[in-house]
Amino acid sequence: MILFDRIRSSRQRDTATTITPPWIKPETLAGFGFIAPALILFLVIEVFAIPYNFYMGFHEWNGFRTPEWVGLENYQFLFEDPLFWQAVTNNLYVALGSLTIMMGLALFIAIILDSGIPFAGVFRGMVFLPVITPAVVVGLAWTRVLSVQNGLLNQTLDVIGLGALKSDWLGDPSLAMYSVIAVFIWRWVGYGVILFGAALLDIDEDLKDAAAIDGANTFQTVRFIVLPLLRPIILIMAIWYFILSIRVFTLVFILTNGGPYNASEVINTYLYKAVFTYSDIGLGSAMANLVMLSLILIGVVRAYFNRRFRLD
Predict the structure, then answer these.
(1) 3-state secondary structure of 261
(2) CB-side exposure of 114: number of CA atoms within 13 Å?
(3) Is the peptide bond prior to 260 cis by the omega test (within 30 degrees of 0)?
(4) Could you tell me which residues come within 8 angstroms of residue 301 by beta carbon, excluding any fewer than 6 positions away?
(5) What is the DSSP string of 106-170?
(6) N or C terminus of the chain with fewer C-beta within 10 Å?
(7) How far apart are CA 34 and CA 28, in angstroms?
(8) Cα gap 233→226, rounded to integer Å
(9) What are the pLDDT digits (tens) for 100-158?
(10) Cα–Cα distance between 229 and 199 in angstroms, integer?
(11) Domains in the chain, please, with CATH?
């Protein structure tokens, strides 16, 4: 009798386990509860917002009245708008500075720090600090540094006897974009230093020693050994810096807001003004679609290099 009761209770437990769907188990429901906020945010931003933004790019809408279908008029307006092309040109200036000055400076600093100088770890931490500092803080700090009145840079020029070089770094149309690029480089160069430094650690020291035995100087070692071995990471950094140059917004918005006289306008500041200042959501959506298309093209290029050079 006792054996029969045990068998019956065991069958009841098996039946209950079989009948109960696994997705209503308490631990499963708890897991869904934890991921629900991120999942909802993903669905709203990625699954809904991107197709809706693409749809709105073909409409004229101020956010209140009924959207009006205008077809390709928003894109035609952008392609004929000198301000839009000036913004694109400024983004390309940022990209050019990133792919030349910032890449070269990051590689140079990484090589110096890899040479075994004292306190190299401290210097790495210092150069990486701007990367992890919020862009708002960086922008506000540099606004004080570059201010025409009581700015740290102009005061320093006065102290060292170069007062003739004092300028309105953010208010002069001929200097504003260069000031923005300089701040952009200052903020992101540390990212390249860390990645290049990690890649340099993977280079076999025997290769450098062999080059030194053959009479190669430091420049020749870097030129014929280090740079070829760093080619994959250089390509990755170039793509990453180019993406950052297209996405730049916060620094420009805080430092100059695209001014003076639109001299430092970039695509994202122009997009922001179109939507939030002029309430032209259709035009802003069209610009956002063009930015998204450019990022997709960059992703395709990166995927090609991944296969071509096995970067991952």
Answers:
(1) coil
(2) 23
(3) yes
(4) 239
(5) HHHHHHHHHTT-TTHHHHHHHHHHHHHS-HHHHHHHHHHHT-TTT-HHHHHHHHTT-GGG---TT
(6) N
(7) 10
(8) 11
(9) 899 999 999 998 888 878 888 888 889 999 999 999 999 999 999 998 888 899 999 98
(10) 9
(11) 2-52 (no CATH), 73-309 (1.10.3720.10)
- Whose tokens are 């290769």? That residue is 207
Residue 74 — φ and ψ, nearest 5°?
Answer: -60, -45
CB 252 within 8 A of CB 180: yes
Q: Which residue has the tokens 């208010």?
A: 171
Helix, coil or strand: residue 258 = coil
Q: Please say whether the beta carbons of 173 and 263 come within 8 A.
A: yes
Q: What is the pLDDT of residues 179-212, one digit of tens each?
A: 999 999 999 999 999 999 888 888 877 787 787 8
DSSP conformation class of 206: H
- pTM as predicted: 0.81
71-109: per-residue pLDDT in tens? Answer: 899 999 999 999 999 999 999 999 998 888 999 999 999
- Residues near 34 by Cβ (< 8 Å), separated by ≥ 6? none
Contacts of residues 143-149 at CB distance under 8 Å and 24 or more positions apart, as own/partner, are: 143/170, 143/254, 143/255, 146/170, 146/179, 146/183, 146/255
DSSP 24: G
Count CA within 13 A, CB hemisphere, residue 119: 4
Spatial distance between the Cα atoms of 94 and 148, rounded to a whole number of angstroms: 23
Report the amino acid identity of residue 227: L
Distance of CA 285 to the CA centre of its chain: 20
CA distance 40 to 23: 19
Q: How is residue 154 written in tokens?
A: 């102009």
